[in-house]
């Protein structure tokens, strides 16, 4: 027994002596202290806030699709509860797509808040640290602006409360005041560059001061603070190095990335990442967008046509308005087959009379498959700025408003096949025919920005939701009190009573 005790004592002593040997740091574990060592580390951290914008539940699919179905511009024949219910304003509290929209926006906000809070000021390049945090702040503002276009009562997550399991909601005005203060500070401090030199690929497509000014101007416009909005829009017009793309068809052209028209765009590349866009962020996920497969496979097999243009919307386009040709394909339009699997396909075949009109905006020449296509999504572009600026001048400097509307209309009537602007009415002639200037702006915004997610927000701020009708019966679709989505019930259930549902929705 004595020998046994001595043996155990020796073992314990030897184990104690080996503590330092066994306590080897895990070299594969990345900590905050070890990560932020280089400029690349900072930019990689920030890239997660950008990549989240590519999410299936944001610009790759859900956002523009669901927003489009709320308008009179589009309809769906899908019986899927999320899509059909969205079209009827019959929102399900357990909708998978609405919860996806909610959670993906908050994922982007959390990533931005993490950059703002965690990036240390001790990194070797303090100027880059300041810029990275500024980029995170403007991206957070974009996520929040999109959120409050969809929900009117949301949690306001900041670096200070981001780790709390649940927090109470605030109204839209509270969110706007937070964003106004944050964006104005970024502008005053000149925290973001006006452009990037593009010497490094990772610099292209980043948020600039112009996105901050555009977002702030849009918030003021939505608050009907026209003078403040006008000042920001005019600054962009006069001092930003932007210009309209000459051809409307090239606005979404995959070969027109980093267009001088775009203040900010979400980039897609199907050759980056894994082989399937159904996955979320990660190595298994393609970085392609889903517009091809969800709209229609023109000249290919497949596609769902979840978003189809209504005939009423098609009829709003004037003769020779090339946007109709660029944004929508109709019966009689030539569609060239791209897929060699289509037996007997002729290059001269066209849509048959059994095919409904389809959305062409944002379509790709790439075949439909699970890795998507490469078209960038223009989140904010100069034509939008021109029309918003024109709106701020209604009842003030209307000659100036007409000038900028005409710039958009002149581009609309440019026919690239004939390389000329075809004859069309000026804004003054439209007003002389009996239309109000504001109505002209409303019509131009509808046509110019169709299927980009703007129309429903415009209708709501103009008090025009009661004009939303069924594309066949003509009966009103809008349900009073449902101008915003319901909070996903699962979010309320897990909040422990801190979050509440709108009284217009009941479980």
UniProtKB/TrEMBL annotation:
Residue ranges of domain RagB/SusD in the record: 369-505
Ranges where the SusD-like N-terminal domain occurs: 37-220
Protein name: RagB/SusD family nutrient uptake outer membrane protein
One cellular component (GO) term of this entry: cell outer membrane
Compartment annotation: Cell outer membrane
Family under the similarity heading: Belongs to the SusD family.
Protein source organism: Persicobacter diffluens
Keyword list, A-Z: Cell outer membrane, Membrane, Signal
Gene3D superfamilies given in the database record: 1.25.40.390
Signal peptide bounds: 1-19
């Amino acid at each position: 027994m004595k020998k046994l005790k001595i043996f155990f004592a020796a073992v314990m002593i030897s184990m104690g002596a080996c503590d330092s040997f066994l306590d080897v740091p895990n070299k594969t574990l990345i900590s905050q202290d070890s990560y932020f060592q280089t400029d690349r580390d900072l930019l990689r951290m920030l890239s997660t806030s950008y990549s989240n914008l590519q999410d299936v539940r944001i610009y790759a699919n859900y956002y523009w699709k669901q927003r489009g179905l709320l308008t009179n511009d589009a309809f769906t024949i899908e019986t899927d509860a999320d899509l059909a219910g969205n079209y009827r304003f019959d929102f399900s509290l357990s909708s998978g797509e609405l919860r996806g929209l909610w959670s993906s926006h908050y994922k982007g906000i959390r990533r931005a808040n993490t950059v703002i809070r965690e990036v240390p000021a001790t990194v070797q390049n303090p100027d880059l640290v300041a810029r990275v945090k500024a980029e995170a702040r403007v991206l957070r503002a974009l996520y929040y602006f999109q959120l409050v276009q969809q929900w009117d009562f949301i949690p306001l997550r900041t670096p200070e409360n981001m780790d709390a399991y649940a927090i109470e909601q605030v109204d839209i005005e509270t969110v706007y005041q937070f964003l106004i203060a944050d964006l104005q500070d970024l502008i005053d401090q000149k925290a973001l560059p006006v452009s990037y030199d593009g010497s490094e690929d990772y610099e292209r497509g980043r948020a600039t001061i112009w996105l901050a000014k555009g977002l702030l101007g849009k918030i003021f416009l939505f608050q009907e603070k026209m003078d403040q909005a006008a000042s920001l829009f005019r600054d962009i017009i006069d001092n930003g190095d932007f210009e309209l793309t000459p051809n409307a068809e090239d606005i979404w052209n995959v070969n027109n990335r980093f267009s001088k028209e775009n203040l900010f765009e979400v980039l897609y590349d199907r050759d980056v990442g894994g082989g399937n866009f159904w996955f979320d962020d990660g190595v298994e996920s393609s970085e392609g967008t889903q517009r091809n497969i969800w709209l229609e496979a023109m000249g290919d097999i497949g596609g769902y046509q979840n978003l189809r243009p209504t005939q009423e919307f098609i009829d709003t386009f004037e003769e020779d308005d090339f946007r109709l040709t660029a944004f929508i394909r109709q019966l009689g339009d030539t569609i060239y087959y791209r897929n060699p699997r289509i037996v007997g396909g002729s290059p001269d075949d066209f849509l048959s009379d059994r095919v409904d009109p389809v959305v062409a905006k944002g379509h790709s020449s790439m075949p439909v498959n699970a890795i998507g296509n490469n078209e960038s999504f223009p989140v904010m572009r100069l034509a939008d700025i021109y029309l918003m600026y024109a709106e701020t001048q209604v009842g003030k400097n209307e000659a100036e408003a007409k000038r900028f509307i005409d710039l958009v209309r002149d581009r609309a009537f440019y026919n690239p096949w004939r390389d000329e602007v075809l004859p069309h009415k000026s804004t003054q002639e439209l007003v002389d025919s009996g239309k109000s200037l504001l109505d002209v702006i409303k019509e131009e915004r509808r046509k110019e920005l169709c299927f980009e997610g703007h129309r429903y927000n415009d209708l709501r701020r103009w008090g025009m939701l009661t004009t939303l009708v069924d594309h066949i019966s003509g009966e009103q679709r809008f349900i009073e009190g449902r101008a915003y989505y319901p909070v996903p019930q699962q979010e309320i259930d897990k909040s422990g009573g801190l979050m509440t549902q709108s009284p217009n929705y009941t479980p």
